[in-house]
What does this fold into?
Amino acid sequence: MIGTAGVAYSGLLVTVISFVIFFKLAKQEGKAHIINISVLKNTSFNLGLLIYTFLQFIQISLTFVIPNLAQLGLKTSALTSGMLLLLGSLLSAFFGPVMGRLLDSQGFKKLFLIGSFLAMAGILLYIIFAQKLSIALIVIFHVMFMTGFSMMYNNSMTIGLQ
It folds into this structure.
């Protein structure tokens, strides 16, 4: 019987082989392709995609960890745990178009610097206050992170696609 490590390595091997086959097929001349991998030669696109991907991973991680922390650590109900994310999520939805307009008027660099600062500050405050987190602090830090996230997330793909 294959152990857990064997299953993980087998999955990794299948993934690598699949990527190799995919890229070989995608490079064939004269065929219509679903994905044009030549865009991966563009540094701006790759940077935008990298930022977009990392931000998505961080955001998904936080939306998993925060409710679990609230339920298991602070002994809140499932409803309260989910509601901790509501204000940050609503602000992020509201800020999406606003940040797009700011991108047009202010440029990406300024938004990215401010957004990086806010997002990183929100995460660092979680770490600093980890032993003393309350519902109010969790909401404040999440709002701070989501504001910074909104400044960078959609705009990183917009810049990458230009």
User: Anything to note?
Assistant: The chain has a mean pLDDT of 87.
